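Page 47, continued from p. 46.
Same chain as before, 751 aa.
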Amino acid sequence: MEIRELAERVLFSSAIEQKLVKADRLEDGRRGDPIATPAQPGRPAELALDGWRSRERVRFADVRNLHTEKERGLVLHFFANHELLALELIALALLKFPEAPAEFRQGLVRTLADEQDHLSLYIERMAEAGVELGQIRVSDFFWRSISTMETPMDFVTRLSLTLEQANLDYAPHYSQLYTRIGDAETAALMARIYRDEIRHVRHGLNWFDTWRDPGESAWAAYKSALVIPLTPNRAKGIGFNREGRRLAGFSDDFITELELYSYSKGRCPTVYWFNPACDSFAGRDSLGFTPSKLVRAMTADLSAVPMFLSAPDDTVLVARRPSTPFLARLSGAGLVIPEFLEVDESMSAAAGSAGHARSGAGSGDEGARPSVEDALTGRSVNRLRPWGWSPDSVCKLSPLFPHLPVGVRESANRRWWNSGIRDLYSKAWSVELLRRFLRLREDDRDWLCDESVVGRACGTRAEVAAAMARIEADGFDRVLVKAAFGAAGQNQTRLLASAGLDGAPDGSYGRKLRAVERLIQEQGCVVVEPLLDKLIDLSVQLEIDENGGARLLGITRFITDGRGQYLGSFVHGMVAGLEEKTRRFLYGDGRDSRRLGKLFQQVADVLAAGARESGFAGPVGVDALVYRGEAGLRMKPVVEVNPRFTMGRVALELARRVNAARTTLWLMLRVADMRAAGFEDASAFAAEMERRAPLSLTSGDELISTGVLFTTDPAQATAFVTVLVVAESLERCKGYFEGFEGRLREWTRHC
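Result:
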């Protein structure tokens, strides 16, 4: 029999029995002309692929409930359809590519024979379980994804290296599963299929390596060869079987890249983007602002931080994907690795290269990066989650508005940016929120601050002078003047209340006064408040839903330097290193463990009511502090409101992967301090820290138990790097940094 005759019978026959008939001897002398791809293969009516998407879909049987023969047989029905599709697609490849090399075609014939055996075995085992082929609806995904192939290279990339490679995970997984439930026969069947699939994948990989550009890595060639809806994520099943892939011939580098690769298999992703200068853009209500060199460096170095807020199928937009060794270390620590899309850094919606529909676009290739819109061509998006909504994020993400669900896209512009949301960024709004909250909590004045510590919004030099006089009259000698818009302790000026605004025009005090006047001119006002004897800073994390309700997510303690700039957060062990008196204060002298939670849920409710008119929904961070006053310790429950993600939110999410019994800090360190301490760069520092404090995980739940884990890529850091530090105590955490010179240990003085 000619190979062409066999292929035609397999592809076009409507009888399953005919598709399973084997030939004793096959010739390839009459290959014929290439055929056009049919709309669908020949099938009996109960197995037809047309109209699949309009039919009621049958959910995959829950593998946790395979108590009956029938339930086990229904699982096999899904695999049987996959084998049938593989048969038909191999036949299609033989008919579409008659000029392909003889060795390639002979390999396909051998694979086809294996698939015939597999389908026969599935049908036989299903019948024993009381299930007939065609009893439930079948999916056409394989056919839709592969039948459009234009070359033999397309075929091996899509079938062998993707869908068959996924079976290197599924087959051993289900073999082990059926063994556990006592079905040895089906377990043996799946084990045989696993061995055959290794051979099939190896055949495809050999030809893929023959045809791909030798100047391109196998991984890069594979990504660029796939066309959506196929992505490398489709090459993975349940679990990840490295050994099976090694046996199939994949390199360790390829296997690692695949293991780390993330892309939604069906759920529309949430798209994250790190824009920490959002406060400044919000204050100006325009794009007419260039962040400082240091802020730009921080933005680049920390661009991957939203990964800790994401789910596995989500997408993080970055200018540069973190390195594979770095992501492998995070994955080994049990952290989620989302999809990273490299996109053009400009704010222009038209920036970047021409559109790409291929799954490898923007994922590490050299050259021009695509625009945000081009990087997500043809994909729907569930939500957009920048660090903060402001003019820069609206501009950056607006090309994705048409990709959002209906009902969201139409109102996207006014929904995420308006004058009301801008007001939420202003520290003047925070001041009024605190004043309003305190008037509702008259009964708590024994531990909450009074209105004398509430700041005042001042729009003129005279108003600043009056506020300073009032602060002095209230018994405070130091004043803090803060920009209405700004983050991380930036644009703060400290003055003496007694000096007023009459200090010398020259010198440091004169420069401070001019800085205050400049802020008023640029932002419309400043906030003037007493400088308190602060003991600890708290970060309260909230989420405001679409209906205006506020949910308290958690509370963390953060560390600042003497200038109020962020150094890090306590992930676990919030009260570590505090005096007993301070600890007892936080929890009502030890009588109310929920004291803080109840307080800040009430803050959240008042905040949500005030923000409701703007239509704001999303993350909010509220900074609070405990200070020492004349009457003892007091809580200032609102220092400022940040209608965006904050580092405290990241710390809260990281806590999920760390043993709660440990003291854990998440630190932001400067590369300049590492160099001052004698390290060539951040990578050298990271190597030393990992030597001093190697990471260890708890048995069973695999939570981080001790050691350090760098959470931004040291190999790419130019100015900042973040690191998770875990130990049995705060002193032990500090001990990891002993012996370093310069300011590398500065955070330890502020704990």
